[in-house]
Each structure stands twice: as C-alpha cells, then as structure tokens.
Amino acid sequence: MFMSFDFVYVNTDSLAPMTTVLPPNHTFISSDILDEERRIYLDSLQSETNIRNIPTFIFLVAMAMIGLFGNSLILLIYSGRKKKTSTIVFIQSIAVVDLITNVIVIPLTIYVLFHTWGFNNHGLCKSFLFINLAAASTSAILLLAVATVRYRKVCVPLGWQVTANNAKIISVLIAVFSCLSSIPYTVVHGIQLVETGRPEVRGKECRVDQNYVNTIWPLVVSLVSLVIFLSCCIPLTYMYVRVGITAWRHIYAFDVSQADDAKLPQNTSDDTMDTKDSASDVQTKTDCIELELKDKPNEGLKKDVTSSQQTICVPPARRNLEAIGRKIANHTTRMLITISVVYIITNLTTLILVFIRSLNPEQMLNIGTVADSMYRLFLQIFMLNCASNPFIYCMCDRKFRKECTAFLRKVFCPQCQLKRNCGRNRK
C-alpha cells in the first residue's frame, strides 16, 4: 500500500545537484537552448539512471516471469479441485491479482523507469498508478479476508463460517472497493516537471500532477492509502496471533491425550484375539467425553444412556482422523501466515525507505553508485509478493505440491501422458 508514495527516486550526482519541483503551470519552453540539445542532455541523464537501475530491471523481469508461471499454475491446480472452500476461492483471487501485477504492473513499472526524465504520456501515467494502487489494495484486503476465515474456523468453530459462494462475492466487492479508493490517488498524480543540473532544461516524470504540486492533496491521498494499509495489517496480525495461540493449545491437548493412551494396557497378539476381548479392549481404549448434546450424535459415535450425563465415546480411528484434520488445518494456517508475513515485511521495507528519503533528501544524493542501485532495488522489493506465493504453497501444502508434480509430468513427459511410470520406462 506504500504505492501512495512516490517510489521513483531521482539521483544524478554531478549531473544534477538536486531534483526540485517547479511551481504549478510552469512552462517547459526555454529560449536559451534548442530542443535537440535538450533531448540529448535528457538522454544522457536517462542513460545514467538506467545504469543505476540495472539490478532493479533484472529483479522485476525475474519476478514477472516466475510469477506468471507460478500464479498460472495456482489457478490451474485449484480450479481442478472438485471441492471449493472459501480459502481456496480467496487463494485463487490473490493469484488473479498477482497475475495482473506480473502482466501489467511490472512491465509498466519498467517502462516508467526507462522514462524517468522524459515521460510524456499523461494517460499512461495515470493508468499505471491506478492499476498499481488498486492491485496492491486488493491484495492487502484479500489477505485480511483470508485471515478472517482462518480466525473463525479455528477460534469460532461453532459460529457462522464463510462459504465458497460468500468468498466469491466478497472478492468482487473487495476489487470494486479497491478501484474506487484508487481514483482520488490517480486524480492527484500524473506528469510532473522537475529541474535538472541545467536551469534551462526541464524533465518530466510520472509522479504528482503538476497542477497539485505544493498543495495538501498529495499528502491527503497518501495518508488515506497508509491508513488502509495499516487497517489491514493490524487486525491481520491480531487474528493470526489468536489463531496461533489456539492451534498451539489444541496441539498440546492432543499430545496429552496421546500420552494418556500410551499408558493403557495393549494386547499385542492381534491374530489370536477373541472377539469379546477385542470389543472390550476397544471400549477400554475409547476416550469418553461428557457433553450435553443438542443435536443428534454422528454415526460411529457411541452414546452411553445409562449415565446421568450424555457421554460420547470416540473410537481411536476417529481420533486419528481428527488428528490428521488438525494437522492439515495447522499446515494451511502456517502457509497463510507465511504469505501475510512476507507481504507485510516487503511493503513495510519499501515504506521505511521512502520515509527515510523524505527525511534526508540531500543526504540521499551523496550516496555512491552501488548504494544508490541497492536503494532503487529495495524500493521495488514489494514486487516479491506476486512471485513468492507459489513457492510458499509448495512448501506448506503437500497436496498442492503433489498436484503440481503430476500436472508438470503430464505436460512435459509424454510417457506420463500415456499413464506409464517414467521410472520404469527409463529402466
């Protein structure tokens, strides 16, 4: 969400002692220099800037290619699943936004960086800033929606839960809200005239619109975007902390119950076990929990009606299934927490760098070429979000990893398309 701040940093050292902003309605025409000389000088400034941006260009191209492949794979894999949950719907929505970033935002960012001193397309500048901010806002709010789903499933399991259809409607509403909230930012930003090292030469860059320079409106829209970002990060952090604490308590309680089961006597001669003894042994190993049931008990649960209270006896097999379910839920929660942490850290890093630049603009002009290149690179570190999610899914979701492997084998291995084992065929 830091995109509300100007991320195009200008530094030409000896070529331009300091970049300053011209007053509104300032004309670009100068009678002291010919247009050809002006163009040559601006090209020289752009060449110097491009050299400093080489690490940034490499990083952006890599993120675009990796994200395009990874997010397309996410959509293909999750679209093929028969059972759609609200979490899967939100993951698909995030993948769509990341694809928009890979296909549209990153190429436009590279174009803007290649035209730092001579950006003349007013409409393209506004379109780039609008899509950039709308995509960032949508991703942040979708992550908040996913955190809410996990919070309710883990901390409020008996309450109302978000269904897959609800998730689809929520995703559309989030996209609409993000687009509407990005309009004021787009109005305020546009082509801005900047001074260079030569007073008679003026440059143009995609930043704050010249009509709104030295007004309060750029600061207002930036603060609004910052408030939206913080209003997503703070509750998101709170809910995942609560989810983590609750999940840890569940794991601890399950470990205690397993330790209690280990103390019970077990019959190791399964082949010669009598039917009655087996039944009594199962009844001995069965955990009984006293509950006040409001609904009918599920099939597979035994109900002891002789007791003064209703007692549910859960067989070991069912407890194993519940343990597996808890394990899968914990993996999913860990995966979503990792995605949210990466998003917050990368955006916060860029926000801090922009803040440092605004506090000490003159000091930033004196840093060396290598330091300036690294600074420009880390200003774009937030683009890591649009390419990192597929790797996180592969590391945390075993089912997704298997489905990806099977899909890639079908695409790149003709033998697997014939439903043959690749290893056996090679032998």
Could you please describe the fold and organization of this structure?
The chain has 427 residues and is mostly helical. It contains 14 helices and five strands. It has helices at 35-52, 54-79, 86-114, 122-155, 164-188, 217-262, 275-285, 316-359, 361-364, 369-379, 385-396, 398-412, 414-417, 422-426, and strands at 189-195, 202-208, 287-290, 302-304, 311-314. The protein has a three-stranded antiparallel β-sheet. The chain has a two-stranded antiparallel ribbon with strand order 1-2. The radius of gyration is 29 Å and the shape is globular.
Q: Which descriptor suits the 3D outline?
A: globular
Mean pLDDT score: 75
Lateral arrangement of strands in the main beta sheet: 3-5-4
Low-confidence blocks of residues: 1-32, 264-314, 316-325
- The helical percent reads 55-70%
Structural class: mainly alpha
InterPro entries: GPCR_Rhodpsn (IPR000276), GPCR_Rhodpsn_7TM (IPR017452)
Domain G-protein coupled receptors family 1 profile: 70-393
Keywords: G-protein coupled receptor, Membrane, Receptor, Transducer, Transmembrane, Transmembrane helix
Subcellular location: Membrane
